[in-house]
Design a protein that fits this description.
Strand content: 35-45%
Number of domains: 2
Order of helices and strands: EEEEEEEEEEEEEEEEEEEEEEEEH
CATH superfamily of the largest domain: Domain of unknown function (DUF427)
CATH class of the largest domain: Mainly Beta
Number of strands: 24
Distance between the termini: 46 Å
Helix content: under 10%
Largest sheet: 7 strands, antiparallel
């Protein structure tokens, strides 16, 4: 039976709901978390959820109580913990939330920190953060005419794209490799991970001049099964290139990635 999302708790703004997924987290050969009854927790101002686990599903013998940070993310949490495994200590790796309704649960950091080495939902590894059940990612083959321009030069031109629709993000246009002018691009060693698409192990930068951010194109050689249609295809950040769709030049969107690409 589906349990609906719990409204924000008074005083802390947390929103949560039970999940029926089997979730495990490992570091090295040690399973730190093994739970069939986690909670998905949305913190104020954070667009993606975290998992919180019943204490009995966590190797609490590996946790050492730590002083909470004075400011920053999770600073209102009740207790922080360091994680210690075989002499290695990860500072402030986990915490508990205030309030009676989440008492007895422990959350772990994911985004931006390598607290644990691997996380799994059922038998599938996931990256960066838990998948949000209120978010969709659809990869749809299309016959629309897509052109990509950088500094006025056409670097890709196709009538067989795959359009990837992801909640709260602009459409990404994945282009067959044979329709990309790789002579205008330079491969880089950039790698990124996505909980919905997998690992992007190929990135390219613009080989021409101008003030163009690096790593503006990417590909997933082996994406997750749900988006297998984008396998090996190439996408570009709409935020920094020009997309011409069916003859219409699209406005560049402003997203989280806009700030990241401008650094």
């Amino acid at each position: 039976m589906r349990v609906s999302r719990h409204p924000p708790l008074p005083g802390d703004g947390l929103t949560w709901e039970p999940s029926e997924r089997w979730v495990r987290g490992t570091k090295g050969e040690v399973t730190v978390v093994d739970s069939r009854r986690p909670l998905l927790v949305w913190e104020p101002g954070r667009p993606v959820p975290l998992y919180a686990f019943p204490e009995e599903d966590v190797r609490t013998d590996l946790l050492r109580q730590a002083a909470p940070p004075a400011t920053g993310r999770h600073s209102g949490s009740t207790v922080f913990y360091d994680l210690e495994i075989e002499g290695e200590v990860v500072r402030k790796a986990a915490w508990s939330y205030p309030g009676e309704q989440l008492a007895g649960y422990i959350a772990f950091e994911w985004f931006g920190r390598n607290v644990l080495d691997h996380w799994y939902e059922e038998d599938t590894e996931i990256f960066v953060h838990p998948r949000d059940p209120f978010k969709r990612v659809d990869a749809l083959p299309s016959s629309r005419h897509v052109q990509v321009e950088i500094e006025g030069t056409v670097v890709a031109d196709t009538r067989t794209p795959v359009l990837l629709f992801e909640t709260h993000l602009p459409v990404r246009y994945y282009i067959p490799r044979e329709d990309v002018r790789f002579g205008l691009l330079t491969p880089t060693d950039q790698h990124t991970r996505c909980p919905y698409k997998g690992v992007a192990t190929e990135y390219w930068s613009w080989a021409g001049g101008g003030r163009v951010p690096p790593n503006l194109a990417w590909s997933y050689p082996d994406p997750l099964p749900a988006v297998r249609e984008i396998t090996g295809m190439v996408a570009f950040y709409n935020e920094v290139v020009d997309i011409v769709l069916d003859g219409e030049r699209l406005e560049r969107p402003v997203t989280f990635f806009s700030k990241m690409l401008s650094r």
